[in-house]
Specification:
single chain, globular, three-stranded antiparallel sheet
Length: 107
């Protein structure tokens, strides 16, 4: 849904077009992200986003998205964070088919 929101409104942000963040989007969908990482400590959610040109086939576009995330220290950290137990990925193409938006959420 977030990738589609960014593609439709052609913006790039961790916040939705209406200003809500990841945890609000989780709550709205009925999803709870709370992973116990210690006796009294919990980890919540993280998110990677990317926008790339829609050039090449699906595999090439997917590789470009992953390379973009791996090239970012923060995004790479999210990918390799061992506290994350669940991952979800959403992808959307702009109506003019020129750009692909991707969202990778972790819990």
């Amino acid at each position: 849904a977030h990738s589609q929101d960014m593609a439709v409104h052609q913006f790039f942000s961790h916040y939705s077009y209406n200003g809500t963040g990841l945890n609000h989007r989780y709550a709205f969908s009925g999803y709870t992200c709370k992973v116990q990482v210690g006796a009294y400590a919990y980890s919540t959610s993280n998110e990677n986003i990317a926008v790339v040109t829609a050039q090449g086939n699906e595999m090439q576009i997917a590789q470009h998205i992953v390379d973009t995330w791996l090239g970012s220290t923060a995004d790479r950290g999210n990918i390799f964070d061992t506290e994350h137990k669940v991952e979800g990925i959403g992808v959307a193409l702009t109506s003019n088919k020129m750009a692909v938006y991707a969202t990778e959420d972790f819990c």
